[in-house]
Structure formats: structure tokens, C-alpha cells
Write a structure and sequence with these properties.
The protein folds into 2 domains: 5-59, Orthogonal Bundle (Arc Repressor Mutant, subunit A), CATH 1.10.10.10; 69-209, no CATH class. It has helices at residues 5-12, 18-25, 29-42, 72-79, 99-109, 112-118, 128-138, 141-152, 162-169, 188-194; strands at residues 14-16, 45-50, 53-59, 69-70, 91-92. The protein is elongated, with a radius of gyration of 20 Å. It has a 3-stranded antiparallel β-sheet. It is mainly alpha-helical. Helix content is 45%, strand content 10%. The two termini are 38 Å apart.
């Protein structure tokens, strides 16, 4: 007989690791992961950690109602084949986060994985002028230009208009590093053209072919 959601929630309420969930439900890891996925979709699970830190699942019998609109990580995950573990819950109140602003926020973060996942968003851009204005405000115009051209090397991307491209190229007094201390061994031409340090090598971008 299939165990009810109420019964599972009662057993798992609180903070859990995947190993603890296996033991509490007396199931294999694949089944434990499936159960967590089901509970998350229903709004009963908050995920923390991941990467170098252990992933923790906070489970409540009261649904977590998400306030506002999709934040940066949810926007990237929705539009990119490379999925990210959210380090925190980020929501936008009173408006929607545009693709253009999401790209700029991702690059401004200086986070390697977030920026790599956000490259897919270049193919979702509807307003190049808006992208430029966000990039100008954050002083990352040349980084935008370099990553746009990098993205064109690995996937089909909507063409940027000549005016915006020229404005991006003419930007001055911007920092070189996209991710502090990282410089590509493979994209020397783009780095020289845009006077920025691209953090990705060809091997990193193989994720887009998986």
C-alpha cells in the first residue's frame, strides 16, 4: 500500500540529509531522491547547501508559499540546460525579472557556475537596448560583449544589432576579470578583442553538449 503524503511528512519533518531520509523511510537512495522531488514540487521542501557543503532538506507539513516572482537562480534554471543548486531563496517583489537583467545580475555576481549557466539566456533576449542599459549601469559592457560572442561559438544565438555591439565595444574603464583570477587558455582572440579575461575553457563549455 502506497504511503500517504501526510505520513511521509510526519516522518521527515525537520532538517534532513538524503542518508537520513533513506533511513527514516526505509527506502533506497533513488526512491528517497524521488520522494524529495515530489515533496518539493508540492511546496513542502526547502533545500540548502550543495557543492562542497552537504545538501540539507528542511521539510515542513505546512506548505511554503513563495511570495513574488522568479528570482535570479529560478530564472536561470528555467531557461538553461545547466541547472544550479540555489544557495538561497531569491524572489522579485512587485515586478518580473527580465532575461536581460538576469544576464547582467549573473555576470555581476562573479560566480563561475552561475555565469556559465546564464550563457543560455543570450538566446532569449528580446531587447538588446535594455540589456545594454543594465550593463552600463553595472559597468560590465565589455564583459557582456565578450560572453555574447563566446556563446555564439557553442550555440545558436539571436543576432545583436550593430549599434548595441558598437556601444559595448566602446566602453572604457571596466575591470578585466569576469571571475576574479580566472583566465581562459582557449579563447585568446575574444579576450584580446574585448580586453577581458574569460573564465571558461572549451572543456568547461562541454556541459552544453550533454
Amino acid at each position: 500500500m502506497k504511503e500517504s503524503i501526510e505520513s511521509i511528512l510526519e516522518k521527515l519533518e525537520g532538517l534532513n540529509t538524503i542518508d537520513l531520509i533513506e533511513r527514516k523511510l526505509n527506502v533506497k537512495r533513488t526512491t528517497a531522491i524521488k520522494k524529495i522531488s515530489e515533496l518539493r514540487k508540492l511546496g513542502y521542501v526547502e533545500t540548502k547547501g550543495g557543492g562542497k557543503r552537504p545538501r540539507l532538506y528542511r521539510i515542513s507539513r505546512i506548505k511554503r508559499e513563495k511570495i513574488g516572482n522568479l528570482g535570479l537562480y529560478d530564472t536561470v534554471n528555467k531557461n538553461s540546460p545547466i541547472k544550479l543548486v540555489k544557495p538561497y531563496e531569491h524572489r522579485i517583489i512587485g515586478r518580473k525579472l527580465s532575461i536581460e537583467e538576469a544576464i547582467v545580475r549573473a555576470i555581476k555576481s562573479g560566480d563561475f557556475r552561475l555565469i556559465m549557466a546564464s550563457l543560455a539566456l543570450f538566446n532569449k533576449i528580446k531587447n538588446w537596448s535594455e540589456l545594454y542599459q543594465f550593463a552600463k549601469k553595472e559597468n560590465i559592457r565589455r564583459k557582456i560583449g565578450a560572453l555574447y560572442e563566446l556563446t555564439r561559438k557553442i550555440m545558436k544565438v539571436k543576432s545583436i544589432d550593430k549599434k548595441t555591439m558598437k556601444l559595448l565595444m566602446n566602453a572604457k574603464n571596466e575591470k578585466k576579470f569576469i571571475v576574479e583570477g580566472l583566465k581562459s587558455k582557449d579563447f585568446i582572440d575574444l579576450q584580446k578583442k574585448w580586453n577581458v579575461c574569460i573564465p571558461f575553457n572549451k572543456a568547461d563549455l562541454e556541459r552544453y553538449k550533454e
